[in-house]
Amino acid sequence: MLNPLNKYLNFQPLPRSATRRQVLLTGLGLAFGALGRQAAAAQTQHITKTAPKPKPPGAKKLVMIDPGHGGIDSGAIGHEGTEEKHVVLEIAHYVREYLNAHGHVEAKMTRDGDHFIPLYQRVDIAHQHQADLFVSIHADGYTSPKAAGASVFALSNRGASSAMARYMSQKENDADLVAGSKYAKEDKNYLQQVLFDLVQTDTIKNSLTLGHHVLDQIRPMHRLHSQQTEQAAFVVLKSPSIPSILVETSFITNHHEEQLLGTTAFRREIAQAISQGIVNFFKYFDTHEQMPR
Q1: Contacts of 145 by beta carbon, 8 Å cutoff, 6+ apart
Q2: I want to staple 142 with a disulfide (CB 3.0 to 4.6 A). Which of 44, 146, 147, 168 is the partner?
Q3: CB within 8 A of 280, min separation 6: which ones?
């Protein structure tokens, strides 16, 4: 098998028109040349093989919507027996519906039914479809039924921004244990990839901006558990090139919010807020700066 880093390790001068991303990747290739080809290939087992290719000018923005859990993994379960996997699938359907009706955005889903997908494969799916954004939707639980409100999370390579963010990321990263240690091992390998950390700094910055726009839309219609975008080491947010967020729409373990999540009206309303936040994010970049892709 060809080493996926060969094109970076065999350095050639870049033209003056090279993008910032090209410059970063070239610098990374030089840095990893000193570590040896074998080590570099191991570091990039998952990331490089599915990294999305640049899209042609004028192409629609593609958003990958990721309903959390599914199949054998039910996710969190409320006191009345409501399963997270079913709630978030319907919310994701509404998000896709709203975004596709917008005209300038296309939305796809990592899963369209009740089946299990390992965490790292969800990111691969986004890469394969050349997604511009990745939005994972959840309705998680906590040890206390008093925990309530919506939260938005982005990736952190420097530890969690709060105890709650740490708890949530550990809980979500353990989701694949339901299906066996094989998937959990793949997730651990994926999370530990470090090759594209320089490029990922830009991606995380854009993820935080996306989170800000989504929170601004949720704030008027629903209580927020966290006023700012939290950060933690979620496997499912680990794409080096796609801005990614995880939205906790509510706590399914809170009695009142479990009832809310059970209504079509709330599911549609939270989906509309998420969708408008995404649209506003794209408008922001159209008027302020170009996304680094």
Answers
A1: 79, 253, 254, 255
A2: 147
A3: 213, 216, 217
Phi, psi of 129 (to 5 degrees): -95, 5
Q: What is the chain's length?
A: 293
Sequence-ordered strand ranges (E) for 110-255? 133-138, 151-155, 230-232, 244-248
The Cα-based distances of 3 to 40, 42, 193 in angstroms read: 9, 9, 16
Of 214, 207, 216, 206, nearest in space to 289 by CA: 206
pLDDT by residue, tens only, the chain of 293 residues: 443 333 333 334 444 444 444 444 444 444 434 433 443 344 345 444 556 666 677 788 999 999 999 999 999 999 999 999 999 999 999 999 999 998 889 999 999 999 999 998 999 999 999 999 999 999 989 888 999 999 999 998 777 766 777 667 776 776 667 655 555 455 455 545 544 454 578 899 999 999 999 999 999 999 999 999 999 888 889 888 899 999 999 999 999 999 999 999 999 999 999 999 999 999 998 887 655 44
d(CA 265, CA 280): 22
Max Cα separation, the chain? Answer: 62
Residues 45 and 189: beta-carbon distance below 8 Å = yes
Q: What is the pTM of this model?
A: 0.77
